[in-house]
Specification:
The chain has about 120 residues and is α+β, with helices and mostly antiparallel strands. It is built from two helices and eleven strands; from the N terminus they run αββββββαβββββ. The longest helix is centred in the first third of the chain and has 15 residues.
Length: about 120
C-alpha cells in the first residue's frame, strides 16, 4: 500500500512539473528563430527584444509550477509565435510603442505573442 502511494505521488508531481504549456488559440502560429538582444519583464509578462527590433511577449500567468528555461541575451532561440501587430491594426501605419511599465516604452518593428507558455530564467 505504501509503495502504491509513493508511485501515485511521483506521477502527480511529474504531471504538474512540466516545462511548458500551449495556448489554445485559433490563429496560425509561425516559428521564429531570433537573436534576443534584451529581456524585460513586468508583473504579467516577459518581453523579449530581438535583433530585428521585434517584440515577443510571453505571459507569466500559470507558470508557477513550470520548470525554468534559461535565456541568455545575444543567443538565438526558437519561438512559436502569433503575429499580433498585424491583427490589431490591420497592417496600417500606427505608433508602434510597447509600454513595459510607467517609465519605460519600447519602439518596435513587429509585435508577436509566444504561443507556448514557459517560465524563463535570465541574469538581470
Amino acid at each position: 500500500m505504501k509503495r502504491i502511494f509513493q508511485i501515485q505521488l511521483t506521477l502527480l508531481l511529474l504531471s504538474n512539473c512540466n516545462s511548458k504549456k500551449v495556448l489554445d488559440i485559433d490563429q496560425n502560429p509561425e516559428t521564429m528563430n531570433v537573436e534576443i538582444v534584451k529581456i524585460y519583464e513586468n508583473s504579467r509578462n516577459y518581453i523579449f527584444l530581438t535583433k530585428d527590433n521585434d517584440i515577443i511577449e510571453s505571459t507569466k500567468l500559470n507558470t508557477l509550477n513550470l520548470k525554468c528555461k534559461k535565456i541568455i541575451p545575444g543567443q538565438r532561440f526558437t519561438f512559436e509565435v502569433i503575429p499580433v501587430s498585424g491583427m490589431i491594426q490591420g497592417n496600417n501605419h500606427f505608433d508602434r510603442a510597447y509600454d513595459i511599465n510607467d517609465t519605460l516604452t519600447l519602439s518596435y518593428r513587429e509585435y508577436y505573442f509566444a504561443k507556448t507558455i514557459r517560465k524563463y530564467c535570465y541574469k538581470k
